[in-house]
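Batch job 17 of 40 flagged for manual review because the log was empty.
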Amino acid sequence: MSPVESQDRPAAVGLHAASEEGSAADGPLGRFSPGARIAIIAGLAVAFGLAVWVVTAPSRDGSEATAGSLDGPRLVADDELADVPDEVGHAVFWAGEQPGAEVEFSDDGGGNVHLRYLTDGADAGTAAQSYLDIGTYPFNGAYEATRSLAGGKGLETVDLGGGGIGFMDRARPYSVIMAWPNQPDLQIEVYHPEKRRALEIVRDGDIVPLP
């Protein structure tokens, strides 16, 4: 699914523009229910000077904020993480080991994956949007779509090593969207409930593929 094509887009249930203040309670832009796909709409952003991206399933009031999975979200032991890319069929990004956190894995069966860092004994599948969350979303042209949007009005651009590019909406400074040319069909989202903390994590170089 190409994010810049006008056809075959999934129906949108959430719309966020740079001109409107976002809330950390919304959670990651790419949280999804079973079968949903993330789509980035570049045409409107170019035509109207807005940073607009459409997400196909997250509830804006948090009532359906938990990511879907064929088997349900589950905690993944350290020695199981290396098997995740083979399980989903593509590279999966994470933020490395985080002190005091357990890694929750969830996917929609179509390749969209979240690794969420649960703390304080939180159960897998909790709807709380209070945790670091790394989403990996496969779609055709992900890098080009991300690069095209990165210079949009209201966005803060992040230059990454290896030719990678990312951006954060200044009005909703909880998520950074990023991609690399060596993974042209993968887009990564880094979400943190503290303002601009996701940006700090990205700039520190902590987001890498699972080994």
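Reviewer: the log was empty due to a logging misconfiguration, but the result itself is present. Residues 14-209 form one domain. Unflagging and moving on to job 18.
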